[in-house]
Amino acid sequence: MSDQIVTRFAPSPTGFLHIGGARTALFNWLYARGRGGKFLLRIEDTDRARSTPEATQAIIDGMTWLGLDHDGEIVSQFDRADRHREVALEMLEKGQAYKCFSTQEEIEAFREAARAEKRSTLFQSPWRDADPATHPDAPYVIRLKTPLDGQTVIDDQVQGPVKIRNDQLDDMILLRSDGTPVYMLAVVVDDHDMGVNTVIRGDDHLNNAARQMGIYTAMGWPLPTYAHIPLIHGPDGKKLSKRHGALGVEEYRDMGYPAAGVRNYLARLGWSHGDDEFFTDAQAMEWFGFDGMNKAPARFDFKKLANICGQHIAAAEDAALLQELQGFLAATGAEPLTEQKIYLLEQAMPFLKERAKTFPELLEKAHFCLAERPLEIEEKAAKNLDAVSIGILTELTPHLQSASWTRQDLEGILTVFAEDREMKFGQLAAPLRAALAGRTATPSVYDMMLVLGQEETVLRLQDASKGAD
């Protein structure tokens, strides 16, 4: 068997890629990528009634946005049903499985009797060791022969050794009476055939591992390394659900969180590397391992998510940030940026990205260079454009028309202008903000003037002066 680590993400396409699934995908991706391994994607679409092409696409889109690239082709579990059947029949041939002709009514009668006698309701099929000569010509399922005594030990990398008595495990159905394979069989066959040797998934699958190990053992296949990770809970400590707000990865994208920030935050849900909160993908790949995993459920915290995302926006390369910003606008159906607005944003990005936690916040700070003349002045900002303030701007404008348009020159002009009139700088800055951006909360007036340029700045001041006429 290859020493190369092979992990997989195997979602069911019955809806969007929820945040818990995204974190499972991320952990598998980090573990494989950090060790030069492979990260595979399998769509578990055996439930034909609930699986949809739209949901499959939503999962792929969510992973693409998160930047979780996979190796090789996407595998469809449904397409491999013949192979799953083949393995069940091989186990039957080897005596590791058997045909069970018990009807639903007989199974229910067995359980009722067991309840009445206060013994285990785990179904014990009378056909387990029956002579094939006694088999009736009737529908049957194929069941796995689970050992009757001893125990199954899951040597889990997160939970530690988990022991389950074999008399607590039933003879699991492998093939239904219509010949279709069950999910539990399909998972094992697919993982084996795809070379998956490391299974990282939610700890709600822990009991499944004991039953799936029975198939590996029956087939003489090597067991994968199991790591069952804690689930994500909401801030109230209950399992994350719709009542906690956004669930699908695309909702976080549409709220304007940067993908790098979401990756960083999700990695910290249930795993840690010392006290490190903010880290890059390269650091996460280098550090990620089972030794930093917690057993207890992680709590989702929107404030922490926003804080981490703000740090990633501030640390990002301007060009990469601009590209992701345009992706955000496209995903939310907003108008694409014109070449002129892209140019202005490029000039403004170094100071815009400071303290913006999401793309909507960044766009709000960029309002001054995205808005077009004549500006719509917010009510609060309009109060800073009274007759006195307009008089000040009208007087200031000629000084700016003759300026050399460097920060040093602009600072000198505004400082001297304010001092000559015995004004505090804030008294000058407030009407300037209103005239240049139509807002009260803006980047510094110098930053805005330098990005807008001399001509646009003067025109906006003139517009504000006219507005008071």
TrEMBL record:
Domain annotation Aminoacyl-tRNA synthetase class I anticodon-binding: ranges: 329-464
Binding-site positions, ATP: 242
CDD domains (UniProt xref): GluRS_core
Residue ranges annotated for the Glutamyl/glutaminyl-tRNA synthetase class Ib catalytic domain, each copy included: 4-306
GO molecular function: ATP binding; glutamate-tRNA ligase activity; tRNA binding; zinc ion binding
Protein family membership: Belongs to the class-I aminoacyl-tRNA synthetase family. Glutamate--tRNA ligase type 1 subfamily.
Protein name, UniProt field: Glutamate--tRNA ligase
Higher taxonomy: Bacteria, Pseudomonadati, Pseudomonadota, Alphaproteobacteria, Rhodobacterales
